[in-house]
Design goal:
The relative contact order is 0.14. With 191 residues, the protein is mainly α. The chain contains 9 helices and no strands. Helix 4 crosses helix 5, helix 5 (73-87) packs across helix 9 and helix 7 packs parallel to helix 8. It has helices spanning 16-19, 24-29, 36-40, 46-67, 73-87, 101-106, 117-133, 148-159, 165-187. Residues 1-16 have low confidence and may be disordered.
């Protein structure tokens, strides 16, 4: 399935799997938003497009946070869309059947059969603990070749950070856009 992003300049179309994980929330908060596309049409490249996505998602998160006390239904809908964007990324350590092609490659260090079952179990436990601390969210991090032990330390740090839900969403949005930038760098000749 392909979502076409009609952006003039060198950015013509993006398979949704190329830069970001498949996600309706991302499409609704960006491409389907009347304010996003006029700005996107002014861009010259994918890097700028990813940064526009980043700033848009962070802005939506800030707006939803400020409106949260009003119990507006649109705020609730936009919060669910933010959750959808974060949750499009797989849990770290999930089996290969549940990963997109990009996620499988990015998490290859986490899928090593040389890792002990204790480490694998710890990673899964931390996923569940994170999801209890931040209901409705999955842990997202730019793996960037880090080992499983390094990722475990990052997960533990984020779980105990004291971040509120919205701060954690903003952190996740930064991470997913870092992932998209890395995917662009690695695949720029194909895009």
């Amino acid at each position: 399935e392909i979502y076409t992003l009609s952006v003039v300049g060198s950015v013509r179309c993006v398979k949704r799997q190329e830069l970001f994980e498949p996600c309706q929330g991302l499409i609704r908060l960006t491409v389907d938003d009347d304010g996003f596309m006029p700005r996107a049409r002014e861009l010259d490249n994918y890097k700028e497009f990813i940064e526009l996505v980043r700033s848009t998602l962070i802005q939506v998160c800030l707006e939803v946070e400020m409106e949260a006390s009003s119990s507006s239904s649109s705020t609730g809908n936009r919060r669910k869309l933010l959750e959808d964007v974060v949750n499009a990324h797989p849990r770290l350590g999930e089996t290969k059947k549940q990963l997109s092609t990009h996620s499988m490659l990015e998490q290859k260090n986490l899928q090593s059969s040389q890792d002990s079952p204790e480490i694998q179990k710890k990673l899964l436990e931390l996923n569940h603990e994170y999801e209890k601390v931040y209901p409705g969210l999955r842990f997202v991090v730019f793996v960037n070749g880090r080992t499983r032990l390094e990722i475990i330390r990052i997960m533990e740090s984020r779980i105990t950070s004291g971040n509120d839900w919205f701060k954690e969403v903003r952190t996740a949005m930064q991470e997913l856009c870092n992932i998209a930038q890395d995917r662009y760098r690695k695949n720029s000749s194909r895009l």
